[in-house]
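A note from the maintainers: we've had questions about how concatenated examples are separated. There is no special marker in the raw files; a new sequence line simply starts the next protein. For clarity in this README we add a label.
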Amino acid sequence: MSFIWYILMVVGLGGMIWCAKAQKRIANAKIYAIVCLVLIVISAIMALVNEFGPDPETKRFSENEKQFTLARLSRIAEFVNKNYAGRKVAILIHQNDIPNSTNSQWIRVDKVKELKSFLKGVTVLDPVIIKPVTNGNEEAAEDLSLSNENLDKMFDECKALQPDVVIYLSGFSEGTETKKLKVWKWKGKNEPKLILAGVSDINAIRPKALKEDDGVLEAVVMSRITIDKSKFDPMKDNAPKDLKEAFDVQYVLVTKENFESLLKDKVIEIP
């Protein structure tokens, strides 16, 4: 659409030339020239915005990502509000998933803040932050901070707060042997339960923990893209404004209650 602004600039320039030639014959020629100049300036600004600003598809993708993130947090909060009323909730999140001065252009949603706004009737503890672990190697910070060793440490830090449930808002790095995490050994009434806010492959974790009555895994948000090949195109389609509808477009909440039925319907598959 930037070509329209270029056309308007040409029109404005033509108008100024005409005003310059007609100023002796037309009393308001100077006023018309100023109007044309304003038109040129506005058109130039808009052309630059269109040329170097985010294109419509990128903007739509960004807005969709924001809406789907809110939908995910809303659905998790709904589950917690229903099943953990009056109890304590711990939130675990990686530092890179929290908006700050360096990543605010990429992180559109303050997940902790928004999740807290959705949680009702529960006690939300101060979030536990996973900080980069570099060991002198800045490039390996993300991999090391999400290693089994460090995640075990962070989950134990959450457990020390004595919550009834831990919500993990970040993901797992590729190659991490998540099935070997010590958190899967949390069992019994005195151990916290675990909710994973985003998992692309349920078999990368320990899905059978959902079948165990005393298993730590309480709920998992699964992406439909890897489940049933969602036809939603984030570059071309608009996410539903209703958060529940948006959630159903992109995700499935897998819980102890619906695990067997989802398995039977082949919505999820495990070896």
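[label: protein 2]
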Amino acid sequence: MSNQGMTRAQRIVLVTIARNEADRIARLLASVRPWVDSMLVLDTGSDDDTAEIARQLGARVEQYEWSDDFSAARNVALDHAGGDWHLVLDADEWLAQGGEFLRQVRQQPADWAGQVRLDDVLDSWAPQGCVARNWLSRLLPGHLRYAGRIHEQPVHALPVRRTPLVIAHDGYRPDALVSKRGRNRRLLLRELQERPDDAYLLYQVGKDASVYEEHDLAHACLAAACERGDRQASWRLDLIIRWIAAMKHLGLHGQAAALAHQERTRYGFSPDFHFAVGDLMLDWTATAPDRTDDLLAEAEQAWRRCLAIGERPDVPGSVPGRGSHLAAFNLALLLEVTGRSAEACGLRRSHGLAEAALLS
């Protein structure tokens, strides 16, 4: 259907599922309310004031008995919402930028899926408050539905467009991770029992294990996911970086270095990849003192490569700073300890790094 054939503006509905989110639901709803036509909150069993706060802020609240299946809950919420477009967000997220874009969407036919940039917010030590950036399909035509018990995905074959919408998320803060520990793993393992060779599920189990520093499990699952997965998958770069880190923590430096060498051509565009290599080489020096000079040279080369590439916010999973000040931080410290203080000082100045911060 063309724009000219449409007889009315398209309705945009915020759709979220929530449970015991009284501390955060207002932040989400306040950020989105100016830009959407209505808001639907599916409460999955709260025993706090989540539902009442949502109603006070103008959201329609429906109740749903949680069934250990995120897709089932998402799809019930979408059925209730009934919009031409659905903006699908979680209670620990909020709209940070780009709300005005939704005004344009109202005039467009719902025949494509829109990706938003998701910025994961960690703690104050994280650069600019972000730990990673991803692109996820969250602005969806009204008829689309989800599949997958956890890490659910919308099922469709529509064109996908990146939008100016920026969503912030603080669900990976340490306090939030404590409350989630075990829940996601349990659902992932249930799903994996049904589809034991699913590379994406293996990757997600490995990712969950890496978040909680369970390096043996992360190594095993990420290795299996890499073996079974599509080399073109958008999540494979993150898999490789996490796998290198898991092997580093397990002391498998040689295997990690071999993997990095194998993947260098494919992922040489990514500062995150080179940053992980530099970290690996530096860590290796502790157990291979006879190779210190060579390993430090490889670490230096990796961090210089990060700076040569620069930031790549367009790459899923990219961490702000790995193409700039974080790489410069590590490189300057390496230059300092290898007797090149003047070059280290110049590098710090050029990236606005404080001397005291580097030496603390």
